Every structure is written in structure tokens, then in C-alpha cells.
């Protein structure tokens, strides 16, 4: 029964929610910057951003056209399927939205989009895939 403590608590919770929203918004901006700068298929990038699996390079965007001219896309190791639920030891649970030979992007439930260097993820075992069907 202490109104001051309750009010302080509510203010702290509101500030925390605000911080969380900012982090999330920032992560979306980072994803848009990634779209602008990506050297990979832009159609695939957008589909992944919205949580859809892409059938593969579209052959229609500027990047695909450039790769086609150079003799096809590079071999790509994809240990993390798009749509796979994963757990990161500090960022928590999330869903893989994109994976290429350099980086895996995860939409974390709490932190928003985070792009992680694939080499670091694999070496450090940073992402635990949840067992299929769990
Ligand atoms: Zn494309």
C-alpha cells in the first residue's frame, strides 16, 4: 500500500518499454540499410524480412543480374534455415529470417533484428537451434 513506490515502479516499467521499442525500431532501420547495401538477391532479402522463405535467387533484381554476368552465385552454406527457431545465450529466443554465406539474421522476440557474423556464430556455438517439432 505505498502509492509512491507503485508510481515509481510504473515509471520504470514505462521507461523500459520505451527503451525496448527504440531498440526494436533501430533494428528495423538496420535491416533497411542492409537491404540498400546487400550484394545478395533483393527479392530474397525482402521475403526473408517478412518471415517468408525464398525459393532462391530471383534472377530478376539488379544483384542477381550482376551475379549472372559473373557466372552464378557463390556456394552457400546455410546451417540455419529461414523460419527456424533458435536461442542465443544473451539475446534470447528468436526466428531466423535470413542466412547467407556471411551472416545470419535473427528476429529476436525481445531485441528485434540482429545480424550475426556466420563465422562467429559457428565458431562460438552462439545459436542453439530448437529441436525440430518443438
Ligand atoms: Zn534477385
3D structure, described in words:
With 134 residues, the chain is of the alpha+beta class. The chain has 3 domains: 1-37; 39-74, no CATH class; 76-134, SH3 type barrels (Roll), CATH 2.30.30. The protein has 4 helices and 5 strands. A 5-stranded antiparallel β-sheet has the order 4-3-2-1-5. Strand 2 and strand 3 form a beta hairpin. The N and C termini lie far apart (43 Å). Zinc ion is lined by residues 41-43, 57-58, 60-61, 63-64.
Name some characteristics of this structure.
alpha+beta, 4 helices, 5 strands, SH3 type barrels, 5-stranded antiparallel β-sheet, 20% strand, binds zinc ion, 134 residues, elongated
Q: How are the secondary structure elements laid out?
A:
Elements: H1 3-37, H2 42-49, H3 62-69, E1 85-88, E2 92-99, E3 103-108, E4 112-117, H4 118-124, E5 127-129
This protein binds zinc ion.
Zinc ion is lined by residues 41-43, 57-58, 60-61, 63-64.
Quick description:
With 134 residues, this protein is of the alpha+beta class.
Strand content: 15-25%
Taken together, the total number of domains comes to 3
The unreliable regions are 72-77
- What top-tier CATH class of the largest domain fits best? Mainly Beta
CATH fold field value of the largest domain: SH3 type barrels
Rounded to the nearest angstrom, the radius of gyration is: 19 Å
Could you say which structural class the secondary elements and strand pairing correspond to?
alpha+beta
Number of strands: 5
Question: Which molecules are bound in this entry?
Answer: zinc ion
Global geometry: elongated
Helix percent reads 40-55%
Termini gap: 43 Å
Average predicted confidence as pLDDT: 84
The major pleated sheet works out as: 5 strands, antiparallel
Tell me which CATH architecture of the largest domain applies here. Answer: Roll
- Give the strand line-up of the largest sheet: 4-3-2-1-5
Q: What is the string of SSEs from the N terminus onward?
A: HHHEEEEHE
Number of helical elements: 4
Amino acid at each position: 500500500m505505498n502509492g509512491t513506490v507503485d508510481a515509481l515502479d510504473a515509471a520504470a516499467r514505462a521507461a523500459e518499454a520505451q527503451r525496448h521499442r527504440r531498440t526494436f525500431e533501430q533494428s528495423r532501420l538496420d535491416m533497411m540499410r542492409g537491404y540498400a547495401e546487400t550484394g545478395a538477391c533483393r527479392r530474397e532479402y525482402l521475403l526473408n524480412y517478412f518471415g517468408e522463405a525464398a525459393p532462391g535467387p530471383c534472377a530478376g533484381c539488379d544483384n542477381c543480374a550482376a551475379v549472372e554476368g559473373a557466372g552464378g552465385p557463390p556456394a552457400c552454406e546455410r546451417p540455419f534455415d529461414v523460419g527456424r527457431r533458435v536461442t542465443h545465450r544473451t539475446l534470447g529466443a528468436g526466428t531466423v529470417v535470413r542466412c547467407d554465406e556471411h551472416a545470419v539474421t535473427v528476429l529476436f522476440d525481445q531485441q528485434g533484428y540482429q545480424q550475426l557474423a556466420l563465422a562467429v556464430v559457428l565458431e562460438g556455438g552462439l545459436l542453439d537451434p530448437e529441436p525440430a517439432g518443438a
